[in-house]
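Example 9 (inverse folding). The structure is encoded as follows.
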């Protein structure tokens, strides 16, 4: 059985199966319920998933979007197509090295 999504951390690639890539019909439900929509100009869950489906995962990984997403699960829970959004965004986080600029105010507030 083929998995819907493959994550290759070494080559920093996220591959959707063709069926999964075509599953998202960009209805925008994920973006409409996401509390992080609008925090990173040009990015929201729908745009991130679409970019990855089109092979542009490096743009998503390099953006601040994966770190702004709270992984609350509202987008995945309400997705009518059952897209694995949380798994995808977690993978994007693991493929980018942490830097203080990306998570700035959180680091300052958590220092002991």
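The amino acid assigned to each position is listed next.
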């Amino acid at each position: 059985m083929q998995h819907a999504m493959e994550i290759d951390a070494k080559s920093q690639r996220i591959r959707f199966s063709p069926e999964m890539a075509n599953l998202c019909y960009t209805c925008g439900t994920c973006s409409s319920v996401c509390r992080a929509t609008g925090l990173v100009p040009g990015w929201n869950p729908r745009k991130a998933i679409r970019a990855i489906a089109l092979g542009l995962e490096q743009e998503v990984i390099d953006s601040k979007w994966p770190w702004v997403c709270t992984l609350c699960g509202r987008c995945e829970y309400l997705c009518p197509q059952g897209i694995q959004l949380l798994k995808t965004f977690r993978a994007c986080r693991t493929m980018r090295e942490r830097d203080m600029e990306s998570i700035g105010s959180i680091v300052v507030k958590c220092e002991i």
